[in-house]
Design a protein that fits this description.
This protein has 273 residues and is an alpha+beta fold. The protein is 27% helix and 30% strand.
């Protein structure tokens, strides 16, 4: 244990320049220098760093600003917007038709009416029936004339009714589609080697109503009929005030009385006044 002489705080230690007061003086000066260096470096950083008072916004702010103001950028759609933009998922059926025909028109005296069209049935077409093989049609009224046993010529009118959920394609495509569906229907009995030839689609205007007419000849490589081996299809789709409507004939080729009667029926076609 050290027991040498003791000194108070007011007396210098022996050895002159190594006293406590000198140490305190140098310590204070060193602190002042370090303090000035720290302040100087800090001020220099604040003045010279990117995004200071002489520059633009700092990097974080720039990223935020760019994300919100990029030209042409739009906000992501909400769940509601996405749902409303999703198209209806309806699978288009080939040669669609209603499960059951509904009859909404009444025949005026001496005429057959369906949809927005009516015509005068020829005397040879004295049978009234709902025609087979029709597609995209409703409110149908038809007439038939016998060619021979098991075979008949047919004509009908009706409203064009497209498959729900599928956009109506217009009169031109409708006339073509109905023609091809008529040709493809299972109505041709024991005939074989069927083909649809000489198909023509052209614009028509009847009684001031615009539309399209598609014609074609259904030929058979084998036909059990004696009177004919082919049939002519004529499908007219018109835009009537009551909506798109169809007039169609399926006529035994070579049976002159039926061919002339089909022409007469077409000539008598009018709208509903």
């Amino acid at each position: 244990m050290h027991t040498g002489p003791q000194y108070t705080a007011t007396h210098p230690q022996p050895g002159g320049g190594g006293g406590r007061g000198t140490a305190l003086l140098f310590g204070g000066l060193a602190f002042a220098v370090v303090f000035l260096l720290i302040v100087g470096v800090t001020v220099g950083y604040l003045v010279l760093r990117p995004g200071g008072s002489s520059g633009g916004p700092i990097a974080t702010d720039t990223a935020t600003s760019t994300a919100s103001t990029t030209p042409g950028e739009t906000e992501s759609p909400t769940a509601t917007d996405t749902a409303s933009a999703t198209p209806t998922n309806v699978e288009e059926e080939r040669c669609w038709g209603p499960e059951r025909f509904s009859r909404t028109s009444s025949n005026p005296s001496g005429k057959l009416r369906g949809g927005g069209l009516q015509f005068i049935p020829p005397a040879e077409y004295d049978l009234r029936s709902t025609p087979q093989g029709t597609s995209y049609s409703d409110d149908v009224q038809g007439a038939q004339a016998i060619v021979e046993e098991g075979w008949a010529s047919t004509m009908y009118v009706g409203a064009v009714t497209w498959q729900p959920g599928i956009e109506y394609p217009g009169a031109e495509v409708a006339s073509q589609t109905i023609t091809h569906c008529f040709y493809g229907a299972n109505i041709w009995g024991e005939t074989k080697g069927r083909s649809l030839d000489d198909v023509i689609t052209e614009p028509v205007t009847i009684a001031g109503m615009p539309g399209y007419r598609t014609t074609g000849i259904v030929n058979f490589s084998y036909a059990p009929m004696e009177s004919t081996s082919a049939t002519e299809l004529v499908v007219v789709v018109l835009e009537t005030p009551q909506g798109p409507s169809v007039f169609a004939t399926e006529t035994a080729v070579g049976v002159e009385a039926h061919e002339e009667a089909a022409d007469e029926a077409y000539a008598s076609l009018t709208g509903i006044s």
